[in-house]
Amino acid sequence: MELSWQEALQKLKDGNEKYLNAYRNCGDISPEKRRETFVNGQKSYAAVVACSDSRVIPESIFFVGIGELFTVRVAGNTADGSVLGSLEYAVSHLKFRS
C-alpha cells in the first residue's frame, strides 16, 4: 500500500479515533493475513517507535491489523543507534513515500 506521509498520518489519526470509542479492534489478524504477510512480506504504511510497555499496543491504538505498521519497540521510547537503524531499514526497505 503506497501512501504519502500525509495520507499515512491521517490513517493513523482515523484509526486512533476509532480506538478511543471501540470495545475491540477489528484489524485483520486472521490466519490468511498471517500467511499472506509471511509469503509476500509486510506492506506497512507507517513506522512507529513505541514503548516496550505491554499496555501500549500500537496495532490497537491505531486500529490496524498484521503487517500494516512497522513497529520498533524500546523501553523509554529512546532512539539509539539500533532504533534509528531499524527505522532507516523500514523507510528504505518498505519504500515509504515522502
Please give a structural write-up:
This protein has 98 residues and is of the alpha+beta class. A two-stranded parallel sheet has the order 1-2. The mean pLDDT is 86.
Low-pLDDT segments, ≥5 res: none
Q: What's the total helix number?
A: 4
> How much helical structure, as a percent, in the residues?
40-55%
Average of pLDDT? 86
The largest beta-sheet arranges its strands as 1-2
Strand content: 5-15%
How many E-type strands?
2
Largest sheet: 2 strands, parallel
Structural class assignment: alpha+beta
* Element pattern in H and E: HHEHEH
Distance between the termini: 14 Å
List the helices and strands and how they pair.
Elements: H1 5-20, H2 31-40, E1 46-51, H3 58-61, E2 69-74, H4 81-93
Parallel strand pairs: 1-2
Task: From the structure above, extract its key features.
alpha+beta; two-stranded parallel ribbon; 98 residues; 4 helices
